[in-house]
Batch of 3 targets.
Target 1
Amino acid sequence: MELQDFTIKQINKCLKEKKFSAKELANAYFDKIKNTDKDIDAYLNLTQDLALSQAEAVDQKISNGEEIPTLAGVPCSIKDNILVKDEKCSAASKMLENYIASYDSSVIKKLKEQGAIILGKTNLDEFAFGSSCENSAFKVTKNPHDLTCVAGGSSGGSAAAVASNQCCFALGTDTGCSVRTPASFCGVLGLKTTYGSVSRSGVIASASSLDQVGPLAKSVEDIEIIFNAISGKDILDATSVEYKYEKFIENNKPLTIGIPKEFFAEGINKDVEKIVKEAIFKIEDQGFKIQEISLPSSKYALACYYIIQTSEASSNLARFDGIRYGLSKQNENDLLDFYLSNRAGGFGAESKRRIMLGTYSLSSGYYDAYYKKAQEIRQLVKQDFKKAFEKVDLIMSPVVPFPAFKIGSKVNDPLSMYLADIYTVPVNLAGLPALSLPVGKTNGLPVGLQIIANHFEENKILSIASIIEKLV
Ligand code: GLN
């Protein structure tokens, strides 16, 4: 077993027993990154000085005989749309290529307080727009299981870094799929947290009513520790809520699991369907009740999501004008020229597409037909889940209808790329939590099971996931 296989609790134990120091561990991870990231391209930027000074502080505490928190000395990587003070934060966009964060995001403040070691910033689709990590302005992250395939997106760098042992855990963000899809493609766990459970302060906004930060890791126990550390009310994010994670205590009544028939319909890859169903059968064998359910409005969810997402994205991207933030070209003729050339040069194709689609949906002539309609559909999607959770405790489905695809195979067809999100976006529209848990492989590529729960019931998800984790 190499050092990089250790779980959070194992690292904590070894540090306390002085089997290795936090600095030695951080350096072992940097060596691993140096040896493997030429092929994988998970990182945009390493934060070596920060990591080593954090590690020294943890080592000092240990040698002083002080208590250390569970995350102290644990090396992690951070998606490059989450601000880390004094470090670059590009959102994988030319627009922010040289932007240095002037403050820590609230999740980073929490991780730093706990002594987690930040190794670097990971690649993503520009502004988290995408499902494959191919929309980054800088590089395409490869899937560690097959370097010719995508790592998934938008938190592809974070998922690939965890999967290739380049960090112990990572943070990503999920607006419509972005923690779960790359987790599923790379064979690691990824938790999309309940909307409001984790602060978004200091996270570069993609679509504010959908975005959530979530952890990626290699075990249920690690996911639980990280979620516990980053969740809770933050006065800097008005949408965050008072919330304390507590372990789920099973009573005598076995949990009931709903299987949405719409999520196993036409178009799903047969191997993915088989692997996911086998995992569900295994759970049934353990005495859990399985019940077919219907989420009838889910067929509208993708269209509804891409109206709401692009509307909010177009409005969030308005701040990048080259004056307040972003690429700033000189010597333009007038103010309009200045804005136009900054935005034309700073944004990539997908960002421009979203600005155009979103501006159109929000324009006075089309607002009622598109944006308002999408908000109405969003309510229907929410109601479907509400009704389902009156009957069942959890919902299970595949994460993506297919495994990781070849790099380049969908880049010229945005619609087919959007279809990858068909099972994940309903969860964001409803603000629910969901986990991607690896349950098998097809042709060497991992397949994830999606476990969805009612709001703030991450504990139920993690309780059942820890059972499945041992069965597959
Ligand atoms: N694939 C979705 C999109 O492109 C979701 C991305 C995300 O969750 N950030 O919008």
Note: The radius of gyration is 21 Å.
Target 2
Amino acid sequence: MPLTRKAYRAAILHSLADPAEVGVDASYEYFEDGLLVIENGRISALGHAGDLLPSLPADIDITHYQDALITPGLIDTHIHLPQTGMVGAYGEQLLDWLNTYTFPCESQFADKAHAEEVADIFIKELLRNGTTTALVFGSVHPQSVNAFFEAAEKLDLRMIAGKVMMDRNAPDYLTDTAESGYQQSKALIERWHGKGRLHYAVTPRFAPTSTPEQLARAGQLLGEYPDLYMQTHISENKQEVEWVKALFPERNGYLDVYDHYKLLGERSVFAHGVHLCDDECARLAETGSAVAFCPTSNLFLGSGLFNLPMAEKHKLNVGLGTDVGGGTSFSLLQTLNEAYKVMQLQGARLSPFKSLYLATLGGARALRLEDKIGTLQPGTDADFIVLDYNATPLLSYRLKQANNIAETLFVLMTLGDDRTVLQTYAAGNRVHQR
Ligand code: GUN
Ligand code: ZN
């Protein structure tokens, strides 16, 4: 294959570390006039345009953007494919919301054609919003995951997904069994895990909808294949937490249920964690598990305020999740807008560089993929986005008053959304153009 080398010139920004660990100033790298060089789907160089240009061949293809910022592709560590059709459902908190809106909507995925149609809409929506990697819940139907991975594979996207395992406390039309959930997951793992840039996540929905037998089978799968992911929900809503205590009286709280069935580990991502206690954060951190912080969902469903400072105290890996359809936007920029307010309501601050970290390198670390995505370091996948400073008249005017990259970044996260994403690149290919 001939070598394909391209360069992109613009302002360029990426995270280097968690600001909570190294301080804000050492947490990022910014090039006001930067150059990003891509070779065969990977980043081969990053630096100041003035430094790099002389070393490049005179005929190299360079795309030069004015009034734009290149950052790594955004990483959504928690989202539901089969809830695309029910974003913004009125009036309920978690448990009633699941029964009233979620389960009926997910039941439509029994139809393969429906699964394929929504997978297509869903992936386009991710890319329009600058999300290049997501950790995705399918429905209980294996075809939801097949449809998603087939569409992702065509675009060579780095994606992680799994079929929901759910064998109780849900309508009959939407349950598997401990045995069928195990066998169906296994078949999907064999077909997809490690194929191209795709990875599989064992996906018990949450403790209330799995029997002890099913949770044990989920843990068994994790022991049978290397590098599998595990995703589930935890401590999102107070009624939910009480229900888990009633269902598993022999266990020492919600996290201990998952711990008992061997579901904690370096590739385990627990969504929400709004009502986790100190000891549970410590145990999550100790096992290398991660939490997906889902602020738009936590506000929309009235679940509560995630305690990010407590997670930081325990050095717990935290990524950002939209949690569509409990969350109300596919945009991780809008998700950061709400994250800022969640911190404000707790008397805490969320710096724009911490926000950048959460949506990029933090997410990559939560997924143990920081050697491949989440930064623009040479050697990593060429998954990046171009943000347009003139996306809307207000953004354009407002950014003219910004004095430095910190202010610019904060305004992008406050006013920005899908309109702000001019282009999205995955493995060096342009996969979205506004
Ligand atoms: N807990 C169990 N299932 C779900 C779900 O689909 N969405 C959210 N937000 N929480 C859950
Ligand atoms: Zn969720």
Note: The pocket of guanine (ligand 1) is lined by residues 80, 94, 98, 102, 205-206, 233, 236, 297, 323, 326 (CB under 6 Å).
Target 3
Amino acid sequence: MRLYVNIDHVATIRQARRTDEPDPANAARLAEAAGADGITAHLREDRRHIQDADLEALARVTRTVLNAELALAPDVVAFVCRLRPFQATLVPERREEVTTEGGLDLSRKDPRLVETIAHLTAAGSRVSLFIDPDPRAIDASADLGVPAVELHTGRYAHGWRSSGAALAQLAAAAKHAAGRGLAVHAGHGLTYLNVQPVASIPEIEELNIGHSIVSRAVMTGMTEAVALMRSLIDEARR
Ligand code: PXP
């Protein structure tokens, strides 16, 4: 199973100060060295974390593959088409949301979606649609002719402690999607505590995980970071 590491929140920390650290491209190199099979970054319309220059840098330095997440915003679509990432995952986006809250609404055929899939495909990117684990959304994705879907694991991530229903829904959706000939990815809200049941679903071939990995990296890196600052200050006073 492939692990794609989403490095958006490395940029979130940098944007808190609008400075040049930490650098998402450096984080991508480290993630790859540690075993990531791909790097995922979401260029949001509001540019709240990843910036255009970050995506350009990631397209240049990524040694594995780049999975660009994007919504149907025309300027973002045009930019991503120019960068030609290995994969482009289309997601819904609402300005007021903290993170991507639900899958794409495929209940009616949106000509903008059809056009965007065509543009990204013509640019050479493999298009994946981020959808809820719902058979209707899976059928609609298959009808749109995309090679892959990413199943939204948010409902599972919120309720996994109290109920197995969302996991069963994910497993059924993964089976249904694979049966329709779609490559099955999954992600959102996966953590060190809840990842394994999802990673055990045989049809899922790729997981996209961000927030939990960046959160843990902050904690596991804290000891070394403080010790280095401590030693620099102590050295200056010697
Ligand atoms: N997959 C998609 C399509 C997403 O939009 C996100 C969040 O940016 C993720 C996966 C990763 O979610 P998390 O940061 O909760 O691991």
Note: Residues 6, 8, 42, 69, 89, 91, 99-100, 130, 150, 187-190, 208-212 surround pyridoxine-5'-phosphate (CB under 6 Å).
